[in-house]
Specification:
Elements lengths: L1 H25 L17 E6 L7 H17 L5 E6 L9 E7 L14 H23 L10 H8 L12 E7 L15 H4 L1 H7 L2 H4 L7 E6 L11 H14 L2 E4 L1
Parallel strand pairs: 1-2, 1-4, 4-5, 5-6
Antiparallel strand pairs: 2-3
Length: 252
């Protein structure tokens, strides 16, 4: 009998502890971006989209699918940032979205909050602004340069993507055909496209960010115009590049 009472007390204490934790999590103050006001986000995913060449219809669908997939993988109070390349400011890609995930109905304990209200807030505060950014991103654009390397180098300087941030993830949606003053993967001579040519042409501090602890996922965009350049040498180039950044290359 006493054993049953003890177990009941322990069970009630455990339940009370869970409820207290949930209340503490839900009452955590947040800033204007829905991120924790007194701590770092639980994770930070940056999606960089290369729109320096006009998208095909298939690529539009791919870009949207990748971004929505990343959106759905963001944990509660994790941060999602959407950038696109800016040829005029290579090391400062244009930011069109950054917010933390406030949580959906699926993340809500109905004993502590109204799941329908939570879902409405998620749609208004997180989903709708991201949809607006996606619409802006899909606008036709075409440029003579594609400074992918300088864009990646600039990410290291972001104060919200430093080593102190847990769960750093970088998703690059691009044809990965670097074409800038640093290097061109469109060069007719294979030797000019080689990774060694990039290394020998500029100081490492200009070329390589430090991505130790960052998971990098490259979603390669292909088209009839890009396939001739996206060969084995091209893949080797980027494998060597990301190895020099110390990134955890999840996919290329």
């Amino acid at each position: 009998m006493l054993g049953g009472v003890a177990l009941g007390v322990l069970g009630a204490g455990a339940i009370g502890g869970v409820i207290a934790f949930q209340l503490l999590r839900q009452e955590q103050p947040v800033d204007d971006l829905l991120c924790p006001a007194n701590s770092l986000p639980s994770s930070h995913t940056i999606v960089v989209v290369d729109q320096t060449s006009a998208f095909t219809a298939t690529q539009v669908a791919t870009v949207r699918a990748v971004i929505l997939q990343e959106r759905d993988a963001i944990p509660v109070r994790g941060r999602l940032t959407l950038l696109y390349l800016d040829p005029d400011r290579p090391s400062e890609p244009t930011q069109i979205f950054t917010r933390c995930n406030p949580g959906t109905a699926a993340d809500t304990d109905p004993w502590l909050a109204d799941p329908e209200r939570v879902q409405r807030n998620w749609r208004r505060q997180f989903e709708a602004p991201l949809d607006e950014a996606l619409a802006r991103l899909m606008q036709p654009n075409d440029s003579t340069t594609s400074p992918i390397i300088q864009t990646l180098r600039g990410l290291e300087w972001r104060p919200d993507f430093g080593r102190e941030q847990a769960g750093r993830r970088l998703v690059i949606v691009s044809d990965m055909l670097e074409n800038s003053s640093l290097h061109s993967l469109y060069a007719a001579n294979p030797e000019d496209r080689a990774f060694s040519e990039l290394e020998g042409g500029s100081p490492a501090s200009v070329i390589f960010p430090e991505f130790a602890g960052v998971v990098v996922h490259v979603r390669l965009l292909r088209s009839e115009n890009t396939i001739p350049y996206q060969d084995e040498q091209f893949e080797s180039f980027w494998q060597q590049y990301f190895a020099r950044t110390n990134a955890n290359l999840e996919r290329f």
